[in-house]
Amino acid sequence: MKRMILLAGMTVAMLTATAQDNPYIVKTKNVKKTAVKPKITATDVSSQDAEPKDFMGKNFRYYSMCDWKEGMRFMVVPEKYDLLVGTFHDANTGKEASSARLRHHIMVYKGHESMSNGREHVNFYCETDNKNYYYELPSGTFDDYCYGKLGVPTLAYLGDVDKARELLMDQPLITRTQFFRIDTEYDGDGYQEVKYPKNRLVTVKAIGVGTRAFPVKIIVEDENGEQFYQNVAMSKTNSGMRDDEFDVDNAKYLFEGSFEFTGAEMAVSTDIKSYVSKTVHTKFATSMSSKGAGKARDIKVPRFTGFIIDEIQGDKNNPGYYTLTLRETETRRVYYKDVTFTEDVPNATREDYFGYLFGLGEGMGRNTTLETRTAIREGRVIQGMTMEEVEMAVGESATKMTNSNGTTEWMYPRSNSILVVQFNSDGIVTKAGARALGTSTTSGRRAAEQRNSGRRLRGNGTPLE
């Protein structure tokens, strides 16, 4: 028992000395962190298989031990129980090497060999201390062992980390779970579980090493500057977990369980059925059909309106088109929209393309209040709106004037009047109302002249009248 306590004490001391200058160790805000510098390594091994179309399958291939190539890089990330049981042996002395001492050391795979005593060794070169180590299989041959998902204990696959840095740094994402973590210490692995709302727009700020099972630590930041992270499995290489273990509570530790992509134009999967039950938002104002009193009618839906896709059906009369059954996230009203899932459908416009019209998640509009969202959808301006919310509701103004006291006025020509929106110095609406075209103000005359000159002023492609 005394020996166990002594080992534990030595382990704590070692843990505080290993994270100092390791670029793979990243921490959330308010905990000192090192700069992330992507590194292209020998782990970019090309697959001979048919190239998958989805983001994860295309970029993060699973490698069983049978497929490992010399040069693949891993980091020693021991769990607590690994600190008392050695994983590696020094190849020169044959002595067991402490997992605590090897913590955060980078191991490069150097193949495997059968020993004269009948045991199998998996060999590594350590970049950190320039020594050779091996992991001895507990039983059986290498071929028997490698077909399982056991792998080598303590090793987190760095190929996924490097690839994630290359593809995800500074990318906007949408949160798909409420459960994340923040770091509580720099030299150790302390963390606190935190909850954040789903469908929050965040930006990737740092990527480093997580754990063996979930090796890619993704730190994101929301619009308020709050940072939190998730450790996720990308390819599941050497994760030591079966596929069926990535469900229920562990589902959030898959990338797609915690995050989804957003962007100017969403990449559309060829598996159209995968969008059923997804939450999406309109990136532009668009016409949809809806049924009221048993009759179908066209309704103009503003941008940033959130929907859940209930059903997708092919249109037999228009090859290449699909009808979406959409349920608005707040009112639960059902709408229908015909879209294409490829951009090469004959006679289709760009606005018909699903990836152009919709974004994943509920979008920026979800950050507004319910009252404001209602006004936006009805095309009204109310007191307390921000400038961005006014543009969501009625588009870009024809005329903008800033007064000497810091207040601002936006003008929107209408048929027989001008909508005048007044903002305070903080950009918040203080007053909005119609002004007769004959009102003798400089801004009013300018807007009237523009109206009378025949200009048809629009915001976001939507007529103001």
Short descriptors:
465 residues, alpha+beta, 7-stranded antiparallel β-sheet, 9 helices
Tell me what the structure shows.
The structure is a single chain. The protein is an alpha+beta fold and 465 residues long. It contains nine helices and 27 strands. It is 15% helix and 32% strand. A seven-stranded antiparallel sheet has the order 3-2-6-5-4-1-7. It has a seven-stranded antiparallel sheet with strand order 17-16-20-19-18-15-21. A five-stranded antiparallel sheet has the order 13-12-11-8-14. Helix 7 packs parallel to helix 8. The longest helix has 14 residues, at 2-15.
Map the helices and strands:
Elements: H1 2-15, H2 55-59, E1 73-76, E2 88-90, E3 96-97, E4 106-114, E5 120-126, E6 131-136, H3 142-146, E7 155-157, H4 158-168, E8 172-175, E9 179-183, E10 191-195, E11 201-209, E12 216-222, E13 227-232, H5 255-258, E14 259-261, E15 279-282, E16 286-292, E17 295-301, E18 306-314, E19 321-328, E20 334-340, H6 354-357, E21 358-360, H7 370-378, H8 387-394, E22 399-402, E23 408-413, E24 417-423, E25 429-436, H9 442-452, E26 458-459, E27 462-463
Antiparallel strand pairs: 1-4, 1-7, 2-3, 2-6, 4-5, 5-6, 8-11, 8-14, 9-10, 11-12, 12-13, 15-18, 15-21, 16-17, 16-20, 18-19, 19-20, 22-23, 23-24, 24-25, 26-27
